[in-house]
Amino acid sequence: MELIFSLIDILSSIYYFLIIIYVLMSWLPNVRESFVGELLGKLVEPYLSVFRRFIPPIMGMIDISPIIALIALRYAVMGLKYILSLVIY
Description:
Layout: H1 2-25, H2 35-54, H3 65-88
């Protein structure tokens, strides 16, 4: 059981940091067009696009959807671990 929880924690932490790196890449010109930027975009953008549909940018420039996406990811992981603990124990 602990192995499953550890695996969930590791995978969610990796995805959490991928989102942060992707957001930070937006501050550097032409980085998103690189191979790494495109790869991160393919991994992260489908998840972020769900939140961008419902959360418009503030004043047309500031996108807070990644912050909400990170919070939702943490709650989803906690919920998944709770459900697994109910099913397994």
